Task: inverse folding
């Protein structure tokens, strides 16, 4: 019996591999020499792209920003990983962004960028992204394109079904992909069924600086894979896919594929708010960290939260229902009207579409086929709206164009399939190169998609670009979807693994773009706003250098009286008040990265000199014709020496 099961897995594996190989042959024949395609992706030098696209960096932990349709890389925003390019996570101001209940964690696995919404439409205020490994959610401010907040998610393992927003960004959600003992404790792994639980978390998201877990729902120990919140008529609900409803803890590739159907969990979060108001939330002791970067002090601080409100489904009727859904569904997507809930059963060919209206009726009629830990399982026949006989294999994710069509990615058959919402008829299919994961249409999970472009986010690149050794960047492909047939117009490489991406019309962001930080509003405790205040102060072995930069010098640029064993803090304020004029600061031998200080900002570099001598520092960012001259020296004397502390600029 066991052998048979394993053979089954072998077959699935073979399919995965075969998909890659077959497509390879068609690699270059899929290329386009067609001039009109080139024109469609062409953005003339000096012109702006029509859309910003935000692509998750996957295991890079970051978020990259591209222009569409050009595919030009505009910026990599560091989020969950230290970034030497910008000093993020190396300078003293941003180090606290990586604080967690496990201490300093300077990396994560980012999967899903999610733009904030108002009335179900992307509004350009923020973008959120999840950290899967040490469960976290980050907020990026889209006036500055900087990470300004990171909150940890307690009672979770693998924050994958996250951070999908509700219609007005009331909440971002977080469902645990790996169930764990709640609260954590030392138990035998094979006691999984007794001790492991899932948590579906709702994080308050509409107030910058105030992100916190509003409540969690404690659910059976399944794997909660993806989510989407309802919109329009289904506003107030969130849908989470599950797999491993078998509750297995080993060889999941076999053991989690036994049940013919898993579930989509439908959560009524408005009801949850009522239960909380009625005092049904239990205070669970916990410990999770919230980090916030304040733009006036240019500094992040951390605080720890010690309790979380938990709702137990058996005590809260009407809070959550299970909708049976075939074949270990991966993505769950809600169409722009909010009526249809699409389950992408990754081990099947067909898509299962549930009807929100039918779901409400089934709840009304108590049309249940089972109940699990107090959660009613609705009858499959009573909630299903239809199924898309796609002809593809391995559906993962679906997005919408706002014109009544849906587009689903098929990993195994490596293609995008376009189908009609309501009739479920397949309208078009195009191959992708190769093995597509997510796909993305600007606004494609909102109420109002811009159905002009579709980006396929592919896992495997192989022969598409000049080879770069065993590892190739992952690859994105841009399709024009304005006509009846999808047309491939551009390939471009991506950074890390962009599981998901989102895009937004540029005009929802450009008018609010911050060009510099007003120096008058700089409230950094170590800022220096005028040359008279430049100084060096010693307190024991702690030395603080209050320094400024302006084209093209640092003040001071000669410092003496530093000693081996000192802890030297460079507090550098960039006095520029002009767009795109950062100054860098790097110190020879510092066990650290550079600083890259924006105009009007103050940042701090820690340097612990090890040896006597005279060491240079310099500006790393080419800021003017005299950028090379932007340098200085620090004299380091022996521990205990009596060389006096002295600093100067322009003195002999
Ligand atoms: Cu499908 Cu993490 Cu959304 Cu990868 S996930 S593809
Ligand atoms: Cu400042 Cu280069």
Result:
């Amino acid at each position: 019996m066991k052998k048979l099961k394993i053979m089954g897995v072998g077959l699935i594996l073979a399919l995965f591999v075969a998909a890659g190989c077959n497509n390879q042959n068609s690699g270059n024949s899929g290329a386009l020499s067609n001039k009109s395609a080139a024109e469609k992706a062409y953005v003339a030098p000096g012109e702006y792209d029509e859309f910003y696209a935000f692509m998750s960096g996957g295991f890079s932990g970051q978020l990259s920003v591209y222009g569409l349709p050009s595919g030009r890389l505009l910026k990599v925003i560091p989020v969950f990983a230290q970034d030497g390019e910008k000093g993020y996570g190396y300078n003293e101001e941003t180090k606290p962004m990586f604080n967690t209940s496990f201490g300093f964690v300077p990396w994560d696995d980012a999967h899903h960028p999610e733009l904030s919404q108002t009335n179900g439409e992307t509004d350009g205020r923020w973008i959120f992204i999840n950290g899967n490994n040490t469960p976290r959610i980050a907020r990026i401010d889209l006036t500055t394109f900087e990470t300004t907040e990171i909150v940890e998610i307690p009672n979770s393992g693998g924050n994958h079904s996250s951070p999908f927003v509700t219609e007005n960004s009331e909440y971002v959600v977080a469902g645990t992909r790996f169930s764990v003992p709640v609260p954590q404790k030392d138990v035998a792994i094979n006691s999984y069924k007794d001790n492991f639980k899932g948590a579906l978390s709702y994080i308050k998201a509409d107030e910058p600086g105030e992100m916190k877990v509003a409540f969690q729902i404690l659910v059976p120990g399944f794997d909660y894979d993806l989510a989407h919140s309802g919109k329009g008529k289904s506003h107030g609900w969130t849908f989470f896919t599950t797999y491993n409803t078998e509750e297995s803890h080993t060889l999941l590739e076999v053991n989690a594929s036994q049940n013919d159907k898993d579930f989509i969990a439908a959560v009524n979060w408005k009801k949850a708010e009522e239960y909380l108001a009625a005092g049904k939330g239990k205070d669970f002791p916990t410990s999770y960290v919230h980090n916030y970067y304040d733009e006036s002090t240019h500094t992040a601080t951390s605080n720890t939260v010690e309790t979380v409100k938990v709702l137990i489904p058996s005590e809260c009727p009407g809070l959550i229902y299970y909708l049976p859904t075939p074949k270990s569904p991966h993505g769950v997507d809600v169409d722009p009207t909010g009526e249809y809930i699409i389950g992408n059963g990754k081990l099947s060919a067909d898509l299962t579409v549930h009807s929100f209206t039918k779901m409400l009726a089934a709840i009304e009629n108590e049309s249940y086929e089972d109940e699990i830990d107090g959660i009613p399982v609705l009858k499959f026949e009573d909630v299903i709206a239809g199924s898309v006989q796609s002809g593809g294999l391995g559906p993962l994710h679906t997005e919408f164009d706002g014109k009544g069509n849906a587009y689903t990615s098929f990993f195994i058959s490596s293609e995008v399939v376009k189908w009609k919402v309501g009739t479920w008829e397949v309208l078009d299919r195009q191959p992708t190169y190769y093995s597509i994961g997510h796909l993305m249409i600007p606004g494609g999970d909102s109420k109002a998609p811009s159905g002009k472009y579709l980006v396929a986010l592919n896992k495997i690149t192989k022969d598409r670009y000049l080879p770069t050794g065993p590892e190739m960047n992952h690859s994105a492909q841009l399709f024009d979807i304005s006509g009846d047939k999808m047309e491939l117009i551009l390939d471009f490489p991506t950074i890390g693994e962009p599981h998901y991406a989102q895009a937004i019309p540029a005009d929802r962001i450009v008018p609010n773009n911050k060009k510099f930080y007003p120096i008058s509003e700089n409230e950094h405790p170590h800022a220096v706003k005028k040359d008279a205040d430049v100084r060096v102060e010693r307190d024991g072995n702690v030395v603080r250098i209050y320094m400024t930069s302006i084209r093209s010098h640092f003040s001071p640029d000669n410092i003496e009286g530093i000693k081996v064993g000192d802890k030297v803090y460079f507090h550098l304020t960039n006095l520029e008040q002009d767009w795109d004029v950062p100054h860098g600061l790097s110190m020879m031998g510092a066990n650290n990265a550079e600083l890259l200080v924006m105009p009007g900002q103050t940042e701090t570099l820690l340097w612990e000199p090890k040896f006597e001598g005279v060491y240079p520092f310099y500006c790393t960012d080419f800021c003017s014709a005299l950028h090379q001259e932007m340098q200085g020296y620090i004299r380091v004397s022996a521990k205990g020496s009596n060389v006096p502390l002295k600093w100067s600029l322009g003195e002999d």
Summary: The two ends are 87 Å apart (CA to CA). The chain has two domains: 51-512, 522-648. The longest strand covers residues 282-294.
